[in-house]
Amino acid sequence: MKILVIEDERKVANFIKSGLEEERYSVEVANDGITGLEVAMNNQYDAILLDVMLPGKDGFTVLSELRAAGISTPILMLTARGTTEDRVQGLDLGADDYLPKPFSFQELAARLRSILRRLSPEKTTKLQCDDLVLDTVSHFAFRFGKEIELTTKEYALLEYLMRNKNKILSRSTITQHVWKHNFDPESNIIDVYIKRLRTKIENEDGSKPLIQSIRGVGYRMRDMPADDLIEVTG
Ligand code: CA
Predict the structure, then answer these.
(1) How far is the CA of 25 from the centre of ligand 1 (A)?
(2) Mean per-residue pLDDT for 20-39?
(3) Ligand 1 centre and the CA of 6: distance in Å?
(4) 47, 106, 153, 209: which could join 74 in a potential S-S bond, CB 3.0 to 4.6 Å?
């Protein structure tokens, strides 16, 4: 899941970023209201953590401009100003929750999980492919009843493959969605990550390969009948 943090205090922003990355979210940070608004308008996030006191544009202005533009991404407001008026103002403008500073990381993470769960009921929290299960809220992967440890990028790649299960995905599509940049087409970064993922999710004797290589094109994650194994090239 992708989270945008709009926070001008770099210490706080870094604390949130590193904590969330440890929980395998992918995190981007904007340090002022104008940049934050622009980034939020032009990219898709699963949630936004938005500070109130910001240079450029304050958090309430950013919030109301986002909602006016029809962007309904869940927003958790962060502020030192814990007064009732501020809280009400934020919620009236369309914030989903409100967290007064100082807060503990555990509390932030719990509030974030809660808005993600509450506001995305259509998004299933568990993705499954054969006997591999990925929990998109906790970011844990399980196979054969065992937890599989994933890095942030491995998680993002696996989530993307599982959300698009049974579809053939080209290398460039995967790059755009998971890495957000255009790599040199000669780069083998995706193949390197696919190899690492395979080692982690397919390392048990007798487990079915779940990620198919489609020669010259890309990859497909698949609940695979045994007959199709002939298509697997790598
Ligand atoms: Ca601030």
Answers:
(1) 22
(2) 95
(3) 9
(4) 47
